[in-house]
Every structure is written in structure tokens, then in C-alpha cells.
Amino acid sequence: MNQYDVIIIGGGITGVGTARDCALRGLKVLLLARGDLTAGATGRNHGLLHSGARYAVTDRDSAAECIRENKILRRIAAHCVEPTGGLFITLPEDDLSYQDNFIKCCIDAGIKAEAIDPKEALKMEPSVNPALIGAVKVPDASVDPFRLATANALDAKLHGAVILTYHEVVSFIKDKNWIVGVQARDTRTGKTEKYYAPLTVNAAGIWGQNIAGMAGCQIKMLPAKGSLLIFGHRVNNMVINRCRKPANADILVPGDVVCVIGTTSDKVPMEECDDIRVTGDEVQLLLKEGCLLSPSLAHTRILRAYAGVRPLVASDDDPTGRKTSRGIVLLDHDRRDGIPGFISITGGKLTSYRLMGEMATDLVCDKLGRRSRCRTAELPLPGSEKELFDSAKGLRIAEKAAIGRQGTMVSKMDFSHKSEILCECEHVTRAEIAYAAKYLDVHNMMDLRRRTRVGMGTCQGSFCMKKVAAALARELGCPERTEEFIREYIEERWKGMAPVCWGESLCEAEYMRKLYADKKE
Predict the structure, then answer these.
(1) Closest by alpha carbon to 63, among 102, 37, 95, 35?
(2) Cα–Cα distance between 495 and 294 in angstroms, integer?
(3) What does the pLDDT look like over 3-26, one tens digit per residue?
């Protein structure tokens, strides 16, 4: 029962994208994630669907990849993408001559880039700094990484893939030097199990270095930490970038009802990747530079701060990672290291995940002798079928919101008996929570947040946490764990609130403490 064609290690967007591609080609797939899906870099980025313009000057190959994938994702993942458009602005302290070279490099990479008058840019995006002296319009967009990853995982499962979250690979099973399987531990129960396949794909992001080392080979990764801030409402409708070489805090991305400023880039020790925290200095830097993009950020409430680690393949002469290529790295460890049965796919970006999955799956099929073409650029993800959007007319807002997140699987939700909205910010109903608990491998409140956006709105869960925790515990058959769910959720969310705990954010934290503090204290 534990025999598969391919085992994929990693529950980020690259892992689930590869799992979907393999499953669509008829392979028997197992995906193992050490934690929840999107718990790593996938759930800790700014949600930009790159046009490639950001890399046009410094990394033309990556820029060309981005614009091709940008067009594909707008088509196959329409319910995950908002076509906001983007502006690259030049401020008085920037070099205006950079703009001409920027436009030329964009066009050379296949990216439509058009210089517009600064006054026209202000009309298109009123929140932009009125001091701008130059502006370029590009086809950037925003994308919901949680929704995108969930849709890929769901489609993989619908085509036969098995996805096991909270299963950590602890060792490889070898026949001489040939990797023939893995041993994984269920981190909730402590039980270990062996799984077998002629091929294993390492798609573990920054942690891929450790996975490769366990297999007996080396990938030198550069842990480049990026910190970001989420603001309490959406100040901009277009993505705003600084028209200069990539630097700290030079991009503001709108998404849903909020906006995100990012990012920093600093090398950190590999041992810190499991517990990345945002510092006060990083918050101040993000605010200072962010206000140069949009001055209104100076008086906009900050919801939280967060950080992720980019999965970059290291370059010895680039300590920050700014110059390191964002390109895709596919490694056949049989040819490279003499270790058959093992492949690594790393590097890249959220925007290029589908291409990464295609490249990895092409190699898997080649090694297995399976002739099957990739269809992930053609078939829409669950939730992006045109017929689904047409049939949504006349539905309530909560039902439309559920369709946007869960796609065709909304048919499995019982709105007739569980239509109550529990999270009013994101319009999450009791029906959707029941569905997520049953079908989406949800084990706690953090998992539920990633699947449904519960608690990610303006109140950050303050008003709905207790109701949601009780509903989830009941659906999971453990009502006695309600208080445990609440405590875990508050402790996890506090990590992001602590670095920005002043002004309105401090008021919010004190209000939440008053609502949920132990009455015995």
C-alpha cells in the first residue's frame, strides 16, 4: 500500500505544483510535508504575480520566465489572481536615466512596459507619492498564495495523489546507493512509516539543503530572510515599485482588503530558518521606505509583521542574495552526484512554480519511461472554471467567497444547515469550516486560516476566534480542545503583532488580551 511512482518532499507551492503535474500525467503520487501546506516561504511572501519587470535589468532569463507564467496563471488560476497592473516609479532621489534602460530590458524580455506621464500615474493610482518624476506601467498583478497552493493540492488529490501533512522525512531508504524510498514520522503521533518509490523529488525550498544532505549530496543554499508588513486596509489598487535596482522595501502590493510592503533581504544562519522573526529595526526600515512609495502608510494601521526565507542557491560573492539569480535550478542527482532515484527542484519564485513543476515532472517521466505531455498550462485549477463563475450569479456573498476559495468543491458544503457566517471579515461560514475539516487536511486553527483566510481580515480574529475554534473542534470530533485551539492561535499570531505593537496595533493587542486572557490571572 505504500508503493508509489514518485514521492515529493515539500508542501510549498513547488511541491504541490509538481504533485499536480505528476498526478495529471497518471503517476501514483505521494507528497510529504513536514508541517502544513504553505507553512514556509509560500505563505510568507508579498503575493505579487510578477510580470518579470522587477528582474528585467538584472536577470533577463528570470524576467522572461515570469511574463510567460504570468499570462498562463491569469488563465488557469483566475480565482487566485487580481489583475491590478503595476507602476514602477522614479522619485527625485532616484536616477531617472535608469528608466530608459529598464523599459528597454523589459521589452527585450517580452514584457510590455510603457512610460507614462507622472500626472497620469497619479490619476491611475492616487496613493502613489506625488513627488514622482517618472512612471512606467507594467502587467504586474496580485495573487493569493494560499488559495493557489490549496487549488493545486486539491487538483492533485482529485487525480489520485496522496498528500500527508505533518509528516517529516527522517531518513532515506537505499538499495546500495540507489534511493528507493523514505521513512517519515508523523509529527503529531510520533509514528514512523516507510514509503517506497523509484524516484523522490526534493522540493523542500530552503530546507532542501538538509534533505539533500540526508541523501548524501550537497546543495549550497543561501538563506535570505525577507521581512514584510501588512497594513489594515488597502491604500493602493495597483502594485507600486521603485524604478531602481532591487533594494529594501521597494514594492507595495494590494491584496484582498489589505496591502503589503516588502521586502528586506539579509543572510541568516540556516539554523534560524525554522523560527524567523521580524526585528524592530526592520519594521522601521520598511515603514520609512514604504512611505516614499505611498505617504499614506505613515498613518495607516499595521496589522502584523512577518518574514520568510527565499530558497536561493548560494553565490559566494553575494552576501544578501540581491544579486543571486531567481532562476530555476533542477538537479538530477544521478548524473550530478551518482545517487540514482533522487531529484531536486529549487530556486524560482511563486510566479514560476508551474514551470518548475513541469520541469521536474518531465525529468520524472523521462526516468520512468512514461510518455505523457504536461497539461498544467491548459487545464484550469478547481475554482477557475468559467462555468463556475457563471453559476455564481444570485448567490449570497458568503457563498461567492467560498467559491472563490474552494472552487467546484463548494458543492460539498451544506449551506442549508450551516450557513452562519463565523468570520465576518472574510465571510467564512460554518459550512466552509466543516468542509475544510473533512477534505483539506485541517488539524488546527493555523491550518484553517491558510485554507479559508479565517482570521486574516481587519479584526485579525478578535471577534470570531472563539466561535471558529469551537466549530472546528466540533467538526474534528474533539470539542474539548477548543481552548487549546484558541491558545495556540493567539500565541502564533502574537509573533507577528509583537514587532508592531504601538498605536492602533497596541490598542488591538490590549483588546484581544482583555477578550481572551485567562480570567484566573
Answers:
(1) 102
(2) 26
(3) 999 999 999 999 999 999 999 999
pLDDT digits (tens, 9 = 90+) for 472-498: 999 999 999 999 999 999 888 888 888
Q: How far is CA 323 from CA 66, 225, 265, 319, 330, in A?
A: 17, 14, 11, 9, 20
Q: Using an 8 Å Cβ cutoff, are 451 and 468 in contact?
A: no
- CB count in 10 Å sphere of residue 124: 15
C-alpha gyration radius of the chain: 23
Give the 3-state secondary structure of residue 91.
Answer: coil
> What DSSP character marks residue 381?
P
C-alpha cell at 122: 497619479
What order do you get walking across the sheet with 6-9 strand by strand? 162-164, 29-32, 6-9, 199-202, 342-347, 328-332
Q: Are β-strands 302-313 and 266-267 bridged in parallel, bridged antiparallel, or unpaired?
A: unpaired
User: How many Cα atoms sit within 13 Å of 53 on the Cβ side?
Assistant: 31
Segment 209-218 long-range contacts (CB within 8 Å, at least 24 positions apart): 209/270, 210/270, 211/9, 211/169, 211/344, 212/333, 212/344, 214/169, 214/171, 214/172, 215/172, 215/179, 215/333, 215/339, 215/342, 216/177, 216/337, 216/339, 217/333, 217/336, 217/337, 217/339, 217/342, 218/337
Please, are residues 341 and 199 in contact by the beta-carbon 8 Å criterion? yes
Q: Do residues 109 and 64 lie in contact, with contact meaning Cβ atoms separated by under 8 Å? A: yes
Task: Give the 3-state secondary structure of residue 199.
Answer: strand
